[in-house]
Amino acid sequence: MSQFDDALAILVDAMFETMEASDGVGLAAPQIGLGQRLFVVDTRQEEGRFVFINPEIIETSVEQTTYEEGCLSIPQMFSHITRPSEVTVQAQDLKGKPFTVKASGLLARVIQHENDHINGVLFIDHMELEAREKLIAAYNRQNKKRD
C-alpha cells in the first residue's frame, strides 16, 4: 500500500468500528474483501490500538504458547492454536511512517493471527487435518440450522 491519505484514514476508522461491533480484537483488510496489506488491532489492554500497514514479522520467539483462538471470518468456532510467544513486527502507520513493535501475550497472538489473514492463512490452517475437518463440519452444521 502506498497511498497514505484521507481515504485510508476513513477505511481504518471503519475497520475499527466493524471489529468492535463484532466484539473482535483484530481485523484484516482481506476479511472485508480488500486485498491490501493492512490490519487493525485493539486488545483492549494497555497496549492500545494499532494500525499495521505493509507489516512484516521480522522475528519470532522460540518459545511457543497455545491459546484458544476464534475468528470473525468463522464466527462461533474456536480451537487451541500454538504460536510463538513473542513477535517483532515492522510496519507503517497511517502517515506512512515506519515503526517496529515487539509484542508478547495477547498482542503477539493477534498480530500473528491478523498477519496470517493478509497472507491468505486462517487460524484453522494451523490445525491438524482431522481437527480442522471436524471444526469445518461443525461450522457447516451450525450455519445449516440458521438457513
Descriptive report:
With 147 residues, the chain is an alpha+beta fold. It has a single domain (6-146), classed as Peptide Deformylase (Alpha-Beta Complex). It is 33% helix and 36% strand. It has 3 helices and 7 strands; from the N terminus they run H-E-E-E-E-E-E-E-H-H. It has helices at 6-21, 105-118, 129-146, and strands at residues 26-28, 38-42, 49-60, 64-71, 74-84, 86-92, 98-104. The strands form 2 sheets. It has a 5-stranded antiparallel sheet with strand order 1-2-3-6-7, with helices on both faces. A two-stranded antiparallel ribbon has the order 4-5. A hairpin with a 5-residue loop joins strand 6 (86-92) and strand 7. The model has no long low-confidence stretch (mean pLDDT 93).
What is the compact description of this entry?
The chain is of the alpha+beta class and 147 residues long. Helices cover 33% and strands 36% of the residues.
Roughly what is the average pLDDT, rounded to an integer? Answer: 93
Count of DSSP-assigned helices = 3
Q: Cα distance, first to last residue?
A: 38 Å
Q: Percent of residues in helical segments?
A: 25-40%
- Please count the beta strands (DSSP E, at least 2 residues each): 7
Could you name the ranges where pLDDT drops below 50 across 5 or more consecutive residues? none
* Shape assignment: globular
Q: What's the CATH first level?
A: Alpha Beta
CATH superfamily: Peptide deformylase
Structural class, please? Answer: alpha+beta
Q: Give the CATH architecture.
A: Alpha-Beta Complex
Percentage of residues in DSSP E strands: 35-45%
Count of discrete domains: 1
Radius of gyration: 16 Å
Oligomer: single chain
How do the strands line up in the largest sheet? 1-2-3-6-7
For the largest beta-sheet, the strand count, sense and barrel status come to: 5 strands, antiparallel
| CATH fold field value | Peptide Deformylase
Helix and strand string, N-terminal first? HEEEEEEEHH
